[in-house]
Amino acid sequence: MHEKQEGQSYVRVMLIHPGVPEYGGRENFRAHYPPLGLACVAAPLVHAGHEVIVLDCAAERLSDEDVVRRVTDYRADVVGLRCQFINYPLGLAIAAAIKAELPGVAVVFGGPHMGLVAEQGLRDHPYIDAMVHGEGEHALLEYVRALDAGSAPVGIAGLVWRDRDGRVVHNGRREVRNGPMEFSPPAFEVLPMHLYRLANFFSLEGHRGCPMKCTFCALPQVQTRRVRYKRPAALVDEMETLVQDYGINRFDLIEVNFTIKKSWAHEVCDLIIERQLPVQWICRSYPELVDPPVLEKLKAAGCYRINYGIESGSAEILRNYRKVTTVQQGLDAIRWSKDAGLTVYVDYLIGGPGETDATVEDTITFHQAARPHFADVSMVVPFPMTPLYDSPEEFGVRVVDDRWFEDLEQTSKFPFVRAMELQHLQKGELERLWLHAVKQIMFAKEAVS
User: Closest by alpha carbon to 409, among 23, 19, 17?
Assistant: First the structure.
């Protein structure tokens, strides 16, 4: 820890968004979503009187050397890196560079997927001092308090750390409380907001958790199956702050199922309309969670695009994914959304359990019937702590690379990572099916009606 002036009691914390790799090049950054998660974990630290600053390596196009220089100049005591699997290798490289130059700085990892590999990450990478398992708002603040007091982070729920003898200690998962999401508003002021003002874009979060049991998705493990909602007024307050203080009025509501509780979605929209906020935004949902009234309300409140994880046009594959959506519900949701005046973006997955030429043709047929405005075709990626990753034999798949998330060449191809094979297909057949779907769906000549 750096020496403080008499009477001071604060820790200098630098929070880092490592950026996102693209096309296999470590030096090739792609500007990504503003790091809302860092603004969220920064808020309790700021309120507690600590100094906090955020580096967005994507938006500022920072190299590892740039980051080390900024950490040195800031005289940081703690560096927190927020990663997902797609940028975990970038975070590892930055952490190694910081620790090599500044061994006394505490390096902490957090983010949506880090709890899934926390113990492994600490065992394999000695330059990481701790990893947050689950939500970081409280765990990081308690960790910083422990460092400031010169004590070991014993008993901090949601933290995995290395003690002085090099042993990895898992303090246990932090329990998620029932009730609404009661966190401080994101600390937008610690972000390089001028960069996002230029883009006129920001991401916001209305609720956490997902009760679904999709075999390929780690979200229930990351956020739990219990859904907790931010008070509608609190979410709309954040929108209003960004509009009034930063001149930003385009948003992405990042939860995967914005309309899972229609009454909540209606209330959010009603508040936007009541306050006459001049906003435009996009959201995501599942086909079985929408109906014409809620879609029309979204449109009236400024939503202009809705994304659906359709995944497949085959009833068999949807069952194998443990989806509760039916093929007809997918068709209805897309039709209703277009009727409401929304742009429709859908995601398809190729390569799930039981995928064949016939099931891929079912997906192509679905797409041609539904005619969404935009579509993306990805390959199924095995995430740790999902059924496909943990029990591949049960689903007739092979995980051929269980550490793909530490390989920059792999993560730079996300979501086209080829870390899984189907046991009933010969090598190369899955890639052929995917390419066929891409050509028929993403490069079809027919115009959307």
Answer: 23
